[in-house]
Write a structure and sequence with these properties.
alpha/beta, Rossmann fold, six-stranded mixed β-sheet, four-stranded antiparallel β-sheet, 10 helices, globular, disordered N terminus
Length: 252
């Protein structure tokens, strides 16, 4: 990987009293969270628990019915404040454009907004692909990549804006166990190297307990517990236990 050590200061995230309903159905029911600068914070929970809706609020795709979201102590309810902070989302699918090369996908934001010269963009793209171990893939098409490689390209694309927070939406979905480990190690490496704050939404128990500084378990739009991996594993609520220890009932 690239030896560059750009020290990016991770930001804090505070969520207070977040409520959201759709058609009379309560999806978020008073969410409170505190994410520390530079930590890896994982949000886990069963399908339909509110994880995806919470993530959409954090990136500004949904507005809450009540409550607030603070970055470094400032409410992001106004565009001016939200624009002060650099947040990047790594989509569940990777969301690469199939008509563009890997390098063009990674540099797309800089190209479209004309933020750098072509030579500067080429250099930045090479650095970010090197950071995720894919420097030789710059001229490949997305169709030539494995699922794990696509996720790493998506991470490289997120790094182009030098984010203070990266939000990962199910980063290991549809990946084999080995590829999932690679993605988990990449998340850990980014924390070590650039101190970015990482918020990971995932069903993957192995990923969560392998990378998290702290974990929040959500169910029915409420946070059941927040703590270190060990604390969450031993939390006495049966809903948390059943989710974390779900397994097949094998015939005897």
């Amino acid at each position: 990987m690239n030896g560059a050590n750009n020290q990016i200061s991770g930001v804090s995230l505070v969520v207070r009293g977040l409520h959201k309903s759709f058609g009379g159905q309560k999806v978020l029911n008073g969410i409170d969270l505190d994410v520390r600068p530079g930590e890896i914070f994982v949000i886990m929970g069963p399908s339909g628990s509110g994880k995806s809706v919470l993530l959409k609020h954090l990136i500004g795709l949904e507005e809450p019915d009540a409550g607030e979201i603070l970055i470094n102590g400032e409410s992001i309810s106004t565009p001016e404040i939200a624009a002060k902070y650099r947040m990047a989302l790594v989509f569940q699918s990777g969301a690469l454009l199939n008509s563009l090369t890997v390098g063009e996908n990674v540099g797309l934001y800089l190209t479209e907004h004309r933020l750098k010269t072509p030579a500067e963009i080429e250099k930045i793209v090479a650095e970010k692909l090197d950071d995720v171990g894919l420097k030789d893939a710059v001229n490949k098409m997305p169709s030539e990549l494995s699922g794990g490689m696509k996720k790493r390209v998506a991470i490289a694309r997120a790094l182009v804006i030098e984010p203070q927070m990266i939000l990962y939406d199910e980063p290991t979905s549809e990946l084999d166990p080995l590829s999932s480990v690679v993605i988990g190690n990449e998340i850990l490496e980014l924390k070590r190297r650039i101190h970015v704050t990482s918020l990971v939404v995932s069903h993957d128990r192995d990923l969560a307990f392998g990378v998290a500084d702290r974990i929040a378990v959500i169910a029915d739009g409420k946070i059941l517990t927040v703590g270190t991996p060990d604390a969450v594993k031993n939390f006495p609520d049966p809903r948390v236990h059943d989710f974390l220890h779900a397994d097949f009932a094998r015939p005897k």
